Amino acid sequence: MEITKVRVPLGVIGIIFEARPNVTADAAVLCLKSGNAVILRGGKEAINSNKCITYIMQDAIESAGLDRNSVQLIEDTSRQSSIELMELTDYLDVLIPRGGKGLIQAVVKNAKVPVIETGAGNCHVYVDESADINMAADIIYNAKTSRPSVCNAIETILVHENIAEKALPVIKARLDEKNVELRGCEKTRAILGESIIPATELDWDTEYGDYILAVKVVSSLSEATEHIAKYSTGHSECIVTKDYKNAKIFTSTVDSAAVYVNVSTRFTDGGMFGLGAEIGISTQKLHARGPMGLNELTSMKFIIEGDGQVR
């Protein structure tokens, strides 16, 4: 027998997304290039742009000799259309939500179609006691302020208590350049002053998408990784350290799609990783994890050829 393992399209992919109309083109192209058909359901904020983009793509698809209906747009932006799409088990092979935490969780909880969970990013930077303070400040500044609304921006920094008194004022000075609001634990406020808003339990669990950052002083690397394990969405986490052993402990302990050592979390992106365009960042473990490009929009099939063999 000759056994061959080949990649095959997932089939018909449904994508529910929010305002950004670039997702319409990105998603359609990636699905089409990987051999899939796609049903798009965008938000009401960009419905006219989505219609125009879809009509143009359908005309182009048809002119290339393919079925224009391989890319379709649901023009009804009501809640009911989302619910119906989530229940199309006879027609959809997989559903991918693109948007904020609320949208993603609504799809995950209510869909009957298999879902690939993407996007939600409660990301952290841990400043180890051996960290280069200026490097830590630069990484945190970039990871928070370069584009705070995206899923690979950080929402919490954890600072080892042995370096906190030196590191926190330097970090705050950089963040003050963008007027980032800090919400800190008691130890953070003792170092930086009462201008720091007291952090609540909700702050550790919030994806702000804004110039707001939660700050916690921790007593050890293990306390930092335990905090991340409790509050992380499994997207991107970073340690700033000069200690090789601590770096290896962090990368092996933290269970997220992307784990960084001395690098801003803002690099979690298909293009930045050299993988090309992506349909999203998967934060789950099956069937794809991390930036989802063409390969992640396919599955595997075995083809077995023989000459009358029986078992």
Describe the fold and architecture.
The chain has helices spanning 22-33, 47-63, 79-86, 101-110, 133-145, 161-176, 186-192, 201-204, 221-231, 244-253; strands at 2-9, 12-17, 37-41, 71-73, 94-98, 123-127, 154-160, 181-184, 197-198, 212-218, 236-240, 258-261, 281-282, 290-291, 298-305. It has 311 residues and is an alpha/beta fold. The protein folds into 2 domains: 2-118 and 279-305, Aldehyde Dehydrogenase, Chain A, domain 1 (3-Layer(aba) Sandwich), CATH 3.40.605.10; 123-267, 3-Layer(aba) Sandwich (Aldehyde Dehydrogenase, Chain A, domain 2). A 7-stranded parallel sheet has the order 9-8-10-7-6-11-12, with helices on both faces. A 4-stranded parallel sheet has the order 4-3-2-5, sandwiched between helices. A two-stranded antiparallel sheet has the order 1-15. α1 packs parallel to α2 and α5 crosses α6. The chain is globular, with a radius of gyration of 22 Å. The relative contact order is 0.15. The mean pLDDT is 95.
